[in-house]
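Let's study today's protein:

:::
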Amino acid sequence: MELHVILTFLTASIILTLSPGPDILYVITSSSSKGFNTGFAIALGLCSGLIVHSSIVAFGAATYILSTTWLLYTIKFVGFSYLT
C-alpha cells in the first residue's frame, strides 16, 4: 500500500473516532464517575475496535462476505439472535 492511502485511512479513522456519538458520551460519563484511567482504557478499547473493523473492511472482507451467501446469512442470523 502507498503511504498516502495509509495516512488517508488513518486520518479518516481518527476523525470518525473523535466525532461525537454514544461512545464519546460513554467515555465522558465513565471518566467523570470512575476517573481518568477508566475513561482512557475505554477510549483505547473503542479506538482499537474501530481500527480493527475498518482495516478488515478495507482489506476486502466485506466483499468476501457479500459473495458468500451462507456466511452472509449466518452473520445476519447471529445478529438477529443477539438483538432479540
About this structure: The mean pLDDT is 88. The chain is about 90% helix and 0% strand. Residues 22-83 form one domain. Residues 36-58 form the longest helix (23 residues).
